[in-house]
Amino acid sequence: MPTETTNEKRCMLYPTERTSWAKLEPLLVEALTQLHDSESTLFQIAANERTIVGHLACYLRNGKQQLEHDWHIDTDYNRVLGSGGSKRQPVKYLTLAVEILETQRILSSPFGRYLNGFDPGDFNKATVELKKKSRTQKLTTPDLVIHERTCHKIEHNLLAIEFKPTNAQNHLAIIDLARMLVFCQSKEIQDNKEMPTYQHTLFLYPDDRQGFLGWLYSNRELSIDVHTEPKPFHVKVSKQKE
């Protein structure tokens, strides 16, 4: 079983500098294209997001040699530092992130069903959902992460993804987008070791079987109360074959 010393030695093998989105994006675009072309039935039948994300992880692993380091690619990963501790995401930060998202004009963008469909009622439902969750339900793990499993520094946490199918409820999509804001932006949380901070986070969903849309955050070591806006992310793929 890994000890703190072995974990520290392993972390020394991983990068001391961050990986730019320009280096990471080609891997993700290639994996999403393969996912779309090979697993189109999953989107046609609106399969569970865990099923879809599991296949995405496989395609990412197949191409990860494009990156400079041998990253781990995991779904629903819930441990950190080899200690058995959960990657907790305090609800106070999630609630604040929902408030921030409600003030941003990005949500009226033409990019997809979710982002031109949110209304004040959806944000209110998201806040109510966060308040009513039990202690266990407040523990958050991203759908997919590219990282080093036992290291805490941001240089060792490359990407977190939340995926939502197009039949998801709006207020749950808002909560996932808020999670990506918190996981990417909260330097204070990382410093306090409440949970890791990722270099990049992505809220992702299919675009009427023609590709994928989403919102991308890249970390700038800012506090959660700084209103950083995400960038639109779009992968256009060929139409489904009959």
Description:
This protein is an alpha+beta fold and 242 residues long. It has one domain. Helices cover 40% and strands 15% of the residues. The chain contains nine helices and six strands, in the order ααααβαααββααβββ. It has a six-stranded mixed sheet, with helices on both faces. A hairpin with a 4-residue loop joins strand 4 and strand 5. Helix 2 crosses helix 4 and helix 5 runs antiparallel to helix 7. 35% of the residues are buried. The mean pLDDT is 80.
The number of strands is 6
Alpha-carbon distance between the termini? 50 Å
Q: What structural class do you assign from the helix and strand content?
A: alpha+beta
Domain unit count:
1
Number of helices: 9
Which stretches of 5+ consecutive residues score pLDDT under 50? none
**Mean pLDDT, nearest integer?**
80
Assembly type of the shown chains?
Answer: single chain
Largest sheet: 6 strands, mixed
